[in-house]
Design brief:
Strand content: 15-25%
Low-confidence stretches: 1-10, 19-57, 63-70
Largest sheet: 8 strands, parallel
Number of helices: 19
Radius of gyration: 25 Å
Strand order of the largest sheet: 9-16-17-18-19-20-21-22
Distance between the termini: 26 Å
Number of strands: 25
Shape: globular
Length: 620
Amino acid sequence: MCVACDWAPHFQAFGGHAVNRRAVLRSGAAMTATAMTATGMTATGMTATALALDRVPTGARAGQGSGRAAAAEPADVVFHNGPVYTVAGPAPWAEAVAVRGNTIVHVGDAAGAMALAGPATQVVDLEGRLLMPGFVEGHTHPFLGAFLTSGVDLQLDDLAQVLAAIEAHARAHPTGPIRGFGWRVDMFPPEGPNRAELDAILPDRPAFFFAIDGHSLWANSRALAMAGVDRDTPDPIPRFSYYARDQKGDPTGYVLEVNAVLELVNAVEPISVAAMGSLLEGWLPKAAAAGITTVFDAGVPPVGSDQAAIIALYAEAEKRGTLPFRVSASYSVKSLPIDDTVEQFNAVRRQVSSEFVHVDIVKIVGDGSQGGYTAWLIEPYADLPDSTGGSPFTEAQWHDLVGAVDAAGFDVHVHACGERTARVALDAIEKAVANNPARDRRHAIAHLVYVEDSDAPRFARLGVTAQFSANWSSADPDTLQNMMARYGAHRASRMYRTRTILRQGGRVSLGTDWPAAGYVSTYEPLKSIQVGVTRQLVGRPDAPVLSPAEERLTVAEAIHANTMGAAYQLRMDDRIGSVEVGKRADLIVLDRNILAIDPHEIHRTAVVLTMMDGVVRHRA
């Protein structure tokens, strides 16, 4: 098969061309080391490039080899004339990269890359654009995101706008249930939303709307009736996943945490495998356009109790050639029983395993969120002093669960919004390390809204990755109002202390946690990175900075956390996460150098090209 024929269309817009050996050597000798002084570089001629790439099909592989070809064989692609940010390896910057098959075979000077070019090699002129590793999402929910965001978008400024949007959506869709996503907790009093507000505009049709944090639901009376929820209905997990009630004991329409939420959703509009597959298929190109080349799926919405049926949809997309990223999936444990966790996890692992899709990690849903008072705190909520929230598990059950998974040789990934959940998870991991045989452990604890000073150094000491959702860490209205109320000034002024973990020698990874969000839901790593660097709302350079300001990441730190940091967490750091010889060709091209521009402009950066495993998955 003609490699040049496969690759040529993708790179003509970059000035890519096949060259003969003599021309390669001549041009290689003449090239200068512009990439090593990359500061200030931006794209040129972007309009023409974008228009040309819009006419090009995707899916061409960089050659047909496995990456094990002899060093003397020509490269399939050479990228040059743009800064290459490697993230790790012998040097942070390089001039050029060469790819053979699905493997990077040269990172360094342009002359060395050009020496690998043959008659069929595509030589790609980056024209000053930035080449870097593809983003590794350390915590996200593609299925849940595709499902939740497929209704009416309620990421609006106030309740009046939300109700107007719901009413307009109902008029435009006159039959069937109405659903949506994105309302914010600060729109309502502490007791949450009420069904009466929905009943006034939707008295006869079932309707339910997910909060932007993904942990709670707002439903009308018709939806509650379809689910059989009334004053006599038992809560799935009392005081944790439950139906909020008024003084008479009747459900208010505010439904908290996943167990109760799924009971209502499945009664009104059951989740089916086919529907989830269709929704995922529509989102996959967006992921590629965002530069995502690997994801950790931190929990799928099951069909019944069958998590494997949903996870298997990734492998089916891989067979069709539409999966643009690698998947490390998780088996979620969100309630009792836990005695058969390892057995159930292994069963799912056996059912789903392919080149790009693996079930590798046990996800423990350790608590809820601060917005609904379901995050597990050490000290009581400032505005609800008789409550510290809760967890689905007792401390003894935590130790049993983590200990069993660790003894079986697997890693846990803990959802811990509350600081007590983080502490108990660290305690359980520490006990497992002491009791079980030594091994390479990659446990992670996610979200970490607030961590006590005494617990922060334990991440480094125990080798636990601190997994943050950077896009939560802005001084947005919800954080300034709600979190200040929930935590009080002392704790609320010390949230998301990402750099503290780094300074203490710990490992950090980033992931958007899409669709869950603090204020704005996004699956785009570039936007999340910007918030992690500025601790401000995107698009608002004059917005308040979330305290403590010294927790702002550098751009390099944020990129590392969203590439190598997450790759380490997922046990893939030997294959992906950086631009190094021998690693897979998971690469992205950005239209500007995000390490050199004003960090407030990072969200405006376009991903011009995404390559995963040597295959072009996106072009703009």
